[in-house]
Amino acid sequence: MIIISAMHNLRRTSLLAALTALAVATGTACSSDSETAAPRGDCPVDPVTVTVSVDQWSDMVRTLAGDCAVVQTVVESTTADPHDFEPTAADTAKLTGADLVVVNGLGYDEWATKAVATASTAPAVVDAAAADGRSEGANPHVWYDPAAQEQVSVAVTDALVKLQPDAADYLQDRSAIFAKQQEPYRQAVDRAAMVSKGRTYAATEPVAEYLADALGMTDATPAGFAQAVANESEPAPGDVAELLDALRAGKVHVLLVNSQVEGSLNRQLVAAAREGDVAVVKVTETQPPGTTDFVRWQVAQLEDLAAAVQTAPK
């Protein structure tokens, strides 16, 4: 049984030298999500205010906007569960007072879209799920879809250009910088796909479903179990038993575990995977403590998944 942690102990994420060099070269090192320092002045026009509902999209927006925006985030990392988040008056003011709001969509941050609807002057809105072509009822964890990274980035840049047409050239340059920063991520996806295609997985939650699909993996999670956890309800005993039996029998190559959710069910599933010599890969819904940006977070998880798949019994 192989257990691989995608967080590198959650607090000791390894720094990738190539990414560090890239961040220095482009001058786009990430800052804390709560920072709202004034831009350095490279933008040819006055900066706008951009509010991001959840921090899975914050790195992207900061890079794309550069000095042309002051970016603020409402829900940062593990400080709150976005599903159940209740914005304060200050949070609502961030949303209603922004020039541009970036939301995830698909009900993941419905509190943000409701707040925006109350604004006396409606801000421009980029809905990540809509930009990626996702419709109601789809898995809301859109940031785990590699294709969505490109689609959403285009939508954000378009929205910024509409707000600041005189900064179009600058914003297109920022888009190119973002694409450059994404190269390690895209390369990690390609490497993982080479060893993961055709392998099966089960998941305690459908957090990384889009990523597994992009790698060519097959979801072996019982349908009833998957539907229940997606709806944030308890799976039926029969569905739990079906998954436990599949894990104990080694009928699945990898078990994806959302390590930010604790509970007896997850412990049972991991124990069953251990019995069946099924590799366990820990993933997280939000950036865990110790990570510095989206790309490092995702590359670390992709590398761990690829390592697990390579060593899993065929």
Overview of this protein structure:
With 314 residues, the protein is an alpha/beta fold. It folds into 2 domains: 3-12 and 185-311, Rossmann fold (3-Layer(aba) Sandwich), CATH 3.40.50.1980; 31-181, Nitrogenase molybdenum iron protein domain (Rossmann fold), CATH 3.40.50. 45% of the residues lie in helices and 13% in strands. It contains 13 helices and 9 strands. The strands form 2 sheets. Strands 1-9-8-6-7 form a 5-stranded parallel β-sheet, sandwiched between helices. Helix 4 (110-117) links the parallel strand 4 (100-103) and strand 5. Helix 8 (183-196) runs parallel beside helix 13 and helix 11 (237-248) runs parallel beside helix 12. The two termini are 13 Å apart. Residues 1-39 have low confidence and may be disordered.
